[in-house]
Amino acid sequence: MTLVWTHLVTSGAPVLEKILRAVVVYVFLIVGLRLSGKRELAQLNPFDLVVLLTLSNTVQNAIIGDDNSLLGGLIGATALLVVNYLVVRFMFFHPKMEQAIEGQPVCLIEAGKICEDKLRQELVNVSELRSAAHRQGFETLNDVESAVLEPGGAFSFTRKEATIEALRYREVLARLDHLSEEIKSLRK
Question: Does pTM surpass 0.90?
Answer without folding.
Answer: no
